[in-house]
Amino acid sequence: MTDTDNKSIGYYLRTHIREYGMVVALVAILAFFQVLTDGIMLKPVNLTNLFLQNSYIIIMAVGMLLVIVGGHIDLSVGSVVGFVGALAAVMIVNWDLPTVFVIPACLVVGAIIGAAQGYWVAYWRIPSFIVTLAGMLVFKGLTLALLGGASVGPFPSEFQAMSSGFLPDFFGGLIEGRFNVFSMTIGVVLAALLPILGLRSRAKQAKFAAVDEPMAFFVAKHAVAGVAILYVTYLLSTYRGLPNILIIMALLIAIFTFITNSTTLGRRIYALGGNEKAAKLSGINTKRLTFFTFANMGMLAALAGLVFAARLNTATPKAGLAFELDVIAAVFIGGASMSGGVGKVIGAVVGALIMGVMNNGMSIIGVGIDWQQVIKGLVLLAAVIFDVYNKNKA
Amino acid sequence: MDTILEMKNITKTFPGVKALDDVSIKVERGEIHALCGENGAGKSTLMKVLSGVYPHGTYEGDILYDGGVQEFKDIRDSEERGIIIIHQELALVPLLSIAENIFLGNEIAENGIVNWPATFARTGELLKKVGLKENPATLVTNIGVGKQQLVEIAKALSKKVKLLILDEPTASLQENDSQKLLDLLLEFKAQGITSILISHKLNEINRVADRITIIRDGKSISTLDARAGQITEDDIVKDMVGRDMAHRYPERTPNISSEKLMEVRNWSATHPLHPERKVVDNVSIDVAAGEVVGIAGLMGAGRTELAMSIFGKSYGTDISGEVLIKGKPVDVSTVEKAIASGLAYVTEDRKEMGLILEESITTNITLANLGGVSERGVLNDGAERSVAEDYRQKINIRTPNVGQKVVNLSGGNQQKVVLSKWLFAAPEVLILDEPTRGIDVGAKYEIYTIINQLAADGKGVIMISSEMPELLGMCDRIYVMNEGEIKGQLAAKDASQEAIMRMILKA
Q1: Of B352, B370, B381, which is closest to A205 when you measure between CB atoms?
Q2: SS3 for B167?
């Protein structure tokens, strides 16, 4: 469209600084640690670990984003992670129930836990901070009760596969150390598919009105993203291939990006968080939506609990401790607003990755856990200050 | 008699609006001076200039008070000189005690440590002065509005008041509480305290005021002396409303259907917090296709409450009554159902309740009818943009781009976005609550044109407005509402501001 020519790339970047600023920050942090760790950061094995270590945070950040966009908060997710892990361990190890039954059952339990908390928030208007603080205590206690204070494990291999398995190479068998052709193929297809989908949506938009994003910027964005995808999959393929958990995560991110961007459900959640009264007076069932975001959060917390238990190969009473803080921090670093109505799924994911890369990088170079906490705290504060500063300037 | 206050040639401009235009007022020491004018005439703005809410330098003109020109920087400044203003919305902290409220920010304390015995003793004296029999330790939330008003006055007295300004003090009071308050004013007068009383209630003004200054459209019109002889309400009303009404409203030839499009029968609702207060009391109204029906009344008459309780029970409890559309009873128990029945309600407060300010024009316009731009729950981006684009052109929303955040638009354009939202929901009947509040004259004209177009398209329009000329200029029929009840209705040809005012005051 001709209209796009008038506006410079600089102008577009300035108005979208928050969206791309975080990605740039992530890349900068990665590069920083790549240098500081003498190249260990982006070694295939470390990259694989990075995804495995942060998978459960990312899974929950996606759900937390909806809760926070809706104007609430969920402090109970860490405890739910521990509780569901314990529940899975008891069902599988102590009761010998089959994995194929336990996994869906645990997800349902998670959804019920979320729904139970969402009920008080949505229909009784009890502040979510209080309801989920109560939930946090309750499920921490129930975890202890369920495990009797001890760890339960180990899990059968099919359960572990969820978290520590890799996509088999259908093109060449599963041999460690060999290049995983199938995984690489997925990367190539994905890198090709994204610009095609992007172009299609641009064309659709252009039919009705001018496209905001300058073409040059669109090309550059997809070029960078494509190279990044190819490079990451290449690295992973030289190790053991794409981890199963990465596939699960990618699917969740895709689904929730779609829900938030393209469905009436997503739109209504943003409206609810943006101005609840206006949303209500526009015929939106705000209570049911709030209820849904919590039920969804509970289910994702349960998934994270299963993933975490599978990764440790045991359920411990300490599992999930303080996870909620990492998850909430990730969402806010990713640009969500405390007052609701603002935030993107991809932002929350990038926020979680920033935290993850910093954890990982600082551990490699030997920064103690004490200073790691201090630095992470300051990064969270800086990200939010950056947000507020940008908003005031505009 | 000497003059305690003279405000000379005060002019105050806000971006795009001249709120006060060369206003002058003279108040004599020891009198009760009433300030009259319609909503939006500039009374409150004038008092804010006087009390330093709008500091010296933000207005033109001089304030002569107590013998010299004053340049108040803020409220504290004017309070030190004995000017105390009691605002329409009470500024009390509900969960603090009466004593704590009275001395809030002005505590009887030494080195930051409050002297409670002295505070309570002094509060007791003040309460006696205003005739309030309450324990100083009682929480403000536990006493009624009338008594809260007295607490505000006691608070003013605690500050050595010379000039007391009351902004519609009786607006939310019951009759006997109002009388008590007015008696109190007369008592103060006997003690030598000067008062400025802003009020809509002409009978009250007649009872207590010595002189009356009338403001209209930001200009001082006249000062009447009530001591010389009896001033009639008609004298006041005439000066309040006499303005040129030609060409402020677009021409329209009504084409009103003989059948009723919507009927509301015996509608009642009570206040959500005070179950004994019936805010809407047995109201029956109707509107035909192609008709613009107005609801006139003062603030707090129950008009918004009526509209909101009809629209999905969004206000009040214990709602009873019946809504019929095209003769058939419809279910309006939730907003969703009300919309489905063909109703739309454009809220009085567009920022608080109408718009999602941080979202785009597009998002706001489609919000009440997402089904219209989606298929099986998946939004069609393109369709959405084209809908927004369509309304942008049709009703002239001035913006380069429908992706623009609503918060960046002017009041008039924001109002057009809200209207677009409801037009896209394709209702049969639109209830417009103060559709032109806070927007400039040009945008008002455009909104009027849209309203006329709606009527011409066979919709029913119910228009709630506090600006009487607007109702007279736009409506085919006007209901007059006061204290939750419909006091009567007037056909366009019989309606005048005087007639409406009389109907309101009849009670």
Answers
A1: B381
A2: strand
